[in-house]
Amino acid sequence: MMGKFEDSVYDLIVETSTNLPGDVRRAVAAGRALEDKATRSGLALATITQNIGMAELQVSPICQDTGMPTFVIHTPVGVNQLEMKRDIQSAIVRATRDGKLRPNSVDSLTGANSGDNLGEGTPVIHFEQWEEEHIDIRLILKGGGCENKNIQYSLPAELEGLGKAGRDLDGIRKCILHAVYQAQGQGCSAGFIGVGVGGDRTSGYELAKKQLLRKVDDTNPIPELRQLEDYIMENANKLGIGTMGFGGEVTLLGCKVGAMNRLPASFFVSVAYNCWAFRRQGVLIDAGTGEIREWLYERGFGISAGAGAAETSLDMKTGGAGESGVPGVHPAAGESADTASGAREIRLTTPISEEDIRRLRVGDVVILSGELHTGRDALHKHLIDHESPVDLNGAVIYHCGPVMLKDEEGWHVTAAGPTTSIREEPYQGDIIKKFGIRAVIGKGGMGARTLQALQDHGGVYLNAIGGAAQYYAECIKKVDGVDFLEFGIPEAMWHLTIDGFAAIVTMDSHGNSLHADVEKDSAGKLALLRETVFK
């Protein structure tokens, strides 16, 4: 049966992981046009645009977190779904081996990574029969950072800043606005949301995720929901959260709402948040041969590779601009240059002194060279009770789970963007104090405990651009070694030599936090939207 089916699924996985579809690219481009290119959010969107083009050109993952592969499949009656499942699993293993997917399947009890993206419940496959003669397969790769910002409401509810949300259209409106607010920059805004109204707790989330399979520029056939989608798109962007939570004009790039019946006693509003790296694609497949007959979303060849992206992004590499990213400026280590936005650009080489760190302020762009060390959940938990295998005094920890490939020459990084940092909040302050770490790189910011540790011990938090896995992989010049590979590739401690690695100071050693400021400001703007709109 269907001798070409496994190859077709493999091609679908590669396309989804490495090439954003045209409707998503247009939404990103439209958002970029609304943002002042000299602001932090404008620079972030330019970097995102550059990363999209790099991933397409190199056929490498757009974001290192390739998520939980989730398939929604419609098949004709009589097609052998068991054989299809086996072929899908084989294609998943192959894509993981080739570095198109990161090994993301972890045993929930032991923490062991399967290494091939297979395991109980992985990948997620939803089969449905229909009366068409062909097979329709949709795939979405939704990373953990945005998955963690999904949220479900049970109405009626009392919502921060918005008051009572009742069991009506206006209550739904308030839930969606609150969902965007609570995500802040941790879900790699500017993002897309799918909303499921009704159902039970499980089917509500499934409905929400299915909304993400709609095209960005489609029109909701239900007038009330069409009006609600338009309202959310207009008003969510008034919250001022901006790209990466840096503040700005563009917080949301798409909103799709669906509804289903519910029990009289239950009224759920389920919101599936997706980052700007909105990786979903689909194909129609011949049920006889297994060959792809049609791509269901416009393939995004070159739509937003964007001439001029390198000149306006956080690009600190040579070629057109100086090493600082400013044409003609090549500051030495520790010296600074002003960008077009007025922010300082400061070059530092690891290990970094406390004196150099305390010179930094929120808003500075730091360009790092030297060695850094990746560390995520497993490593942070381990370091609380154990010593580090390397000297971390003056070092930089990068919250990153890279995509790695190994050949006869050793390990190579193929994708290496930041992961969401707030997960490490229970550990980070203690680890900064224990080891003398000077800088932490991640995305989305951290909380009060980490901010206090940065102030007490002389450290900064550097916000890299979430999802920009190709952009940052290019800054990694060498893999120096690895510890704790038994934790799995994403959770291992990778020792990397970097050059020209740029990120923005968003928490400094003087008690300042851009994330806290943006959250406070957006909370005030959220309260302005409290008044009932839909009656």
TrEMBL record:
Enzyme nomenclature, EC number: 4.2.1.2
Annotated InterPro entries: Fe-S_hydro-lyase_TtdA-typ_cat (IPR004646), Fe-S_hydro-lyase_TtdB-typ_cat (IPR004647), Fe-S_hydroAse_TtdB_cat_sf (IPR036660), Fe_dep_fumarate_hydratase (IPR011167)
A Pfam short name: Fumerase_C
Cofactor(s) demanded: [4Fe-4S] cluster
GO molecular function, one term: fumarate hydratase activity
Enzyme class: lyase
Ranges where the record places region Disordered: 317-341
Reactions this protein catalyses: (S)-malate = fumarate + H2O
UniProt domain Fe-S hydro-lyase tartrate dehydratase beta-type catalytic: residue ranges: 338-517
Keywords linked to the UniProt accession: 4Fe-4S, Iron, Iron-sulfur, Lyase, Metal-binding
Job of this protein: Catalyzes the reversible hydration of fumarate to (S)-malate.
Quaternary structure and partners: Homodimer.
Protein name: Fumarate hydratase class I
